Amino acid sequence: MALLELKGVETFYGTSQVLFGVDFHIDAGEVVTLMGRNGMGKTTTVRSIMGLTPPKHGEVMFRDHGVSGWPGHRIARLGIGYVPEGRQVFPNLTVRENLEATAANHGKLSDPWTVERINALFPRLSERSGQYARTLSGGEQQMLAIGRALMTNPVFLILDEATEGLAPIIREEIWHALEHNLKKSGQSILMIDKHPKAMARIADRHLIMEKGRIVWSGTSPELLADEAMQHRYLGV
Fold it and tell me: Nearest-CA neighbor of 75 among 107, 98, 102?
């Protein structure tokens, strides 16, 4: 049984159609990427899942609930943690206060995330626990944004361009945490990213989007082997 499933999703901004019959599913425990060039509909897909830009046609199913048309906060409470582009931490709260502010157990996990577990995942946050979020580097703010999402104890985590614009060393720290901590713990994740080699290391399956449609899907070995597809759709 799929944890998340999109069936024929069509989403518009006003009269402009952005998604054209998007279909895919993600099973419990899977890490899946959604890749493609800018402006191809990846973020709109996430917004459709989260109820921020509801689909006009089609259906979004999450944990056996048809959530199309639900408000975003209600969808989140089913157990989705969402890290949007732009980080969006609380700048005038400390690192610890940011983490405590989102503490909940929406996924009803038996071993919930705590501030201490987040600090172990991202030691930089432990070192800066008392600092205001506005004083952190961009990479540290991104770690904090991921930590805040995990503090809701989601069964499903969505990361929208989690490493965009970050220094390579910080990007690698985040990828390492995703691969060696979250994936190994069985966390279900949808990642939007632009780095096929790194994503092949982390994810189980990959989806490529072009002009509002899923045009390719496959495993990590299939992704790496298809250089012509990468060049055509990812510009690699």
Answer: 107
SS3 95: helix
CA torsion, ordered 206, 209, 213, 218, to nearest 10 deg: -20
- Whole-number pLDDT of residue 108: 85
The predicted-structure confidence for 185-224, as pLDDT tens digits, reads as follows: 999 999 999 899 999 999 999 999 999 999 999 999 999 9
Report whether 20 contacts 209 (CB < 8 A). no
Distance CA 170, CA 176 (A): 10
In the chain, what are the domains? 1-79+157-236 (3.40.50.300), 86-154 (no CATH)
Q: How many CB atoms lie within 10 A of CB 51?
A: 20
How would you label 162-186 residue by residue, b for 16+ Cβ within 10 Å and e otherwise? bbeebeeebbebbbebbeeebbeee
Q: Is the pTM of this model over 0.90?
A: yes
Q: Give per-residue burial for 88-115: e unless 16+ CB within 10 Å, then b.
A: ebeeebbbbebbeebeeebbeeeebbeb
- Residue 68 phi/psi, 5-degree rounding, is -60, 125
pLDDT of 236 strictly over 80: no
Q: pLDDT, tens digit, for every residue of 76-104?
A: 999 999 999 877 899 999 999 999 999 99
Beta-bridge partner residues of 209: 214
Residue 107 has pLDDT above 90, yes or no: no
